[in-house]
Automatic annotation (TrEMBL):
Species of provenance: Hibiscus trionum
Protein name as annotated: alcohol dehydrogenase
Keywords: Metal-binding, NAD, Oxidoreductase, Zinc
Catalytic activity from the UniProt record: a primary alcohol + NAD(+) = an aldehyde + NADH + H(+); a secondary alcohol + NAD(+) = a ketone + NADH + H(+)
Uppermost EC category: oxidoreductase
Subunit structure comment from the entry: Homodimer.
Listed GO MF terms: alcohol dehydrogenase (NAD+) activity; S-(hydroxymethyl)glutathione dehydrogenase [NAD(P)+] activity; zinc ion binding
GO cellular component: cytosol
GO annotation (BP), single: formaldehyde catabolic process
UniProt domain Alcohol dehydrogenase-like C-terminal: residue ranges: 222-345
Classification via CDD domains: alcohol_DH_plants
Family: Belongs to the zinc-containing alcohol dehydrogenase family. Class-III subfamily.
Domain Alcohol dehydrogenase-like N-terminal: 49-180
Amino acid sequence: MDAFYHNSSVSSLESTDTAGKVITCKAAVAWGPGQPLVIQDVQVAPPQKMEVRVKILFTSICHTDLSAWKGENEAQRAYPRILGHEAAGIVESVGEGVEDIKKGDHVIPIFQGECGNCMCCRNQKTNLCQKFGVNPLKSVMVNDGKTRFSSKDGSPIFHFLNTSTFTQYTVIDSACAVKIDSQAPLQKMTLLSCGVSTGVGAAWNVADVQPGSSVAIFGLGAVGLAVAEGARVRGASKIIGVDINPTKFPKGKAVGITEFINPKDLEVAVHEKIVAITEGGVDYSFECAGNLEVLREAFLSTHTGWGVTVLLGIHPSPKLLPIHPMELFDGREIRGSVFGGYKGKTQLPKLAKQCMCGTLKLEEFITHELPFHNINEAFQLLVEGKSLRCLLQL
């Protein structure tokens, strides 16, 4: 992995001035649920008012991309579509009115935007944005309701999660582009677009994990392991990882997990085991699996009186919370977390700086790297549970 970082050069934009022109480039296009992505030429229009066009240098795949590709939820209604929402790149050009970003800036695209002007953006209690918040059904740009991608014949190719990063060039709203230090390694910064920020932020911003506390994490994918990393940095004394895949355990140890539980190995419910080994339950639990039964186990694994459960998993099922209202009278709480509570444009640059200083072990999350044209192989690695993040170089 070190050789990959040392040998991968991040060059500046080509000297050819493409501003204001349509760019033809390669993209991985989804034509239907479960169908292999097709690497093909696409036309990328110039950015319009308050938009930026970004040359993507690195992108990776998370389970949200996988779910959309499979067609497991309503997010994948529009076809053809360019998926992807974890990436890093360099600004190629900016549209009218963009003042905080310029050509050549290093940026991270984010699915949870920050306009800075709406009621939510002005409120420090939330990281939601009324105009550019995450919306899996959105497939066009806010500015004019049109796409910036098209096939050679001019037919539209739709957007995904405010970002669409499975392409050599993408157009995003400036509210969804975070400028970072030009010295930050873009390979690693890719992870801050979603997985690591979501997990670490849940531990730091949403739960506010305290030194010496106990934590249980249900689901040890990249987000769950990022929670563990955040809890480790905060000084949690006991970090319990719960997963049915034992191959996740060695990686978990590297990011601070102190004890593992495989539900398949137990004769009692997981929460009963956790309550027994923690003398009443953990201070914080994190549900990262997107499963209602797991959510209930996470909730019951926390200590009465003060236990906090943070919900991070995506739940496409129409079923409601498996909690009786009276159970909340025991003093336990459930909190939802979107993008780790981070206001992307104002707070993510600081997280990037912390990563540059070695606060977080980002390299632990990149388990594979492949050239962009092998994107279907990268998807298969995630399907088979063999990768946390496969980094694709464009």
